Amino acid sequence: MIRPLYSLVLIGAQPLLRRKLRRRGVSEPGYLEHVEERFGRYEQATEPGRLWIHAVSLGETRAAGILLKALREVDPGLRILLTHGTATGRAEGARLLRKGDAQAWLPWDTPQAVRGFLEHFKPAAGVLMETEVWPNLTAACHGRGIPLALANARLSEKSLVQARRLSGLSRPAYGALAAVWAQTETDARRLAEAGATVKGVYGNLKFDAAPDAGQLARGRGWRAALQRPIVMFASSREGEEAEFLRAIAGKRDVQWLIVPRHPQRFDEVAALVSDAGVTVSRRSAWGEGPAAADVWIGDSLGEMALYYGLADVALLGGSFAPLGGQNLIEAAACGCPVVMGPHTFNFAEAAELAEEAGAAKRVTAMEEGLRAAVEMAADGGLRAAASEAGLAFASAHRGAAHMTAKAVAELLAR
């Protein structure tokens, strides 16, 4: 009874979704492309039998890319259907496609739209990345005999509380999954409590990503040419930059670098910096190297390795406001020490393990974080020890890609 009511609500909300897409499309034109796919209407030619992978946004798409690399080492001829929910995810996903692959929006979770999607593409099996479990989607796949798994799966305590509150929807949705491969034992416990069948705990796929060596070298070269320490605010989120700017007011002995998490906010953050009365230089305007300014803005996609190579220390975005924190694995793999705030519930175990390894330092507030970052950036021995600890931490936790690829191959064999 609950899922039909849920479906009616979603059907009634479709005009609001169209309005939201139009608004988002003003700053991100990708949201205005192939809009009817969101409602289960697909025009592109297709072939049945592909492996379908859903990666909702940028982070999930990058994790999917790591899994895809491992899958193609096993089966070079594998054909993929890649779906997304955000414009940045779809743009990143386009880089992963090969001849014979397809890409589309995952539809709004109404019975009609889901039916249109599955009837058009007829996937052999599906893999949802990390957290994307939808009641009508999982029910439809289960009913059609399409094995559907959740890979690199995580579930925060906050999300588990929400799942309990809506157990009439969430428990059947998790229960309809053919397999769940969790990042950590804690995630596995929560997912099982939510109703999922956990088939393995494989770790985080993002540990298997290799940083771009060229970007790292370029960033380190730029850093070596500067005569003062560089502190980066990595993957900063809305509300955090204003606090950061207040905390660094008058501090000109450090080069500050802000890399916003979401590209649609690049202009907004640059304006915040200018309004704070300090000079700003954006990566998009750099030539052979960074231009002189009080604050640099990293306004490019796909260059995090360059920024981590450029920075002496990174503050972890999303952790200084109650947003759950961003992923610190890439920073560790690049040998960039991390200072993180109190809010890391989205990546709790990775944050705890990084702190135990000496790759990251926990603080309670922005002011304390800046003091710790500046102290580490100015102390070569302290910084080198944290950098080496980060590299060792990242290396010690690799292997999820191979195990997940093997499990996906078994799923396809069904």
TrEMBL record:
<feature type="active site" description="Proton acceptor">
    <location>
        <position position="60"/>
    </location>
</feature>
<keyword id="KW-0448">Lipopolysaccharide biosynthesis</keyword>
<dbReference type="Pfam" id="PF04413">
    <property type="entry name" value="Glycos_transf_N"/>
</dbReference>
<dbReference type="InterPro" id="IPR038107">
    <property type="entry name" value="Glycos_transf_N_sf"/>
</dbReference>
<keyword id="KW-1003">Cell membrane</keyword>
<comment type="pathway">
    <text>Bacterial outer membrane biogenesis; LPS core biosynthesis.</text>
</comment>
<dbReference type="GO" id="GO:0009244">
    <property type="term" value="P:lipopolysaccharide core region biosynthetic process"/>
</dbReference>
<dbReference type="InterPro" id="IPR007507">
    <property type="entry name" value="Glycos_transf_N"/>
</dbReference>
<protein>
    <recommendedName>
        <fullName>3-deoxy-D-manno-octulosonic acid transferase</fullName>
        <ecNumber>2.4.99.12</ecNumber>
    </recommendedName>
</protein>
<dbReference type="GO" id="GO:0005886">
    <property type="term" value="C:plasma membrane"/>
</dbReference>
<feature type="site" description="Transition state stabilizer">
    <location>
        <position position="206"/>
    </location>
</feature>
<keyword id="KW-0472">Membrane</keyword>
<comment type="function">
    <text>Involved in lipopolysaccharide (LPS) biosynthesis. Catalyzes the transfer of 3-deoxy-D-manno-octulosonate (Kdo) residue(s) from CMP-Kdo to lipid IV(A), the tetraacyldisaccharide-1,4'-bisphosphate precursor of lipid A.</text>
</comment>
<comment type="similarity">
    <text>Belongs to the glycosyltransferase group 1 family.</text>
</comment>
<dbReference type="GO" id="GO:0009245">
    <property type="term" value="P:lipid A biosynthetic process"/>
</dbReference>
<dbReference type="GO" id="GO:0043842">
    <property type="term" value="F:Kdo transferase activity"/>
</dbReference>
<feature type="domain" description="3-deoxy-D-manno-octulosonic-acid transferase N-terminal">
    <location>
        <begin position="34"/>
        <end position="209"/>
    </location>
</feature>
<keyword id="KW-0808">Transferase</keyword>
<feature type="site" description="Transition state stabilizer">
    <location>
        <position position="130"/>
    </location>
</feature>
<dbReference type="InterPro" id="IPR039901">
    <property type="entry name" value="Kdotransferase"/>
</dbReference>
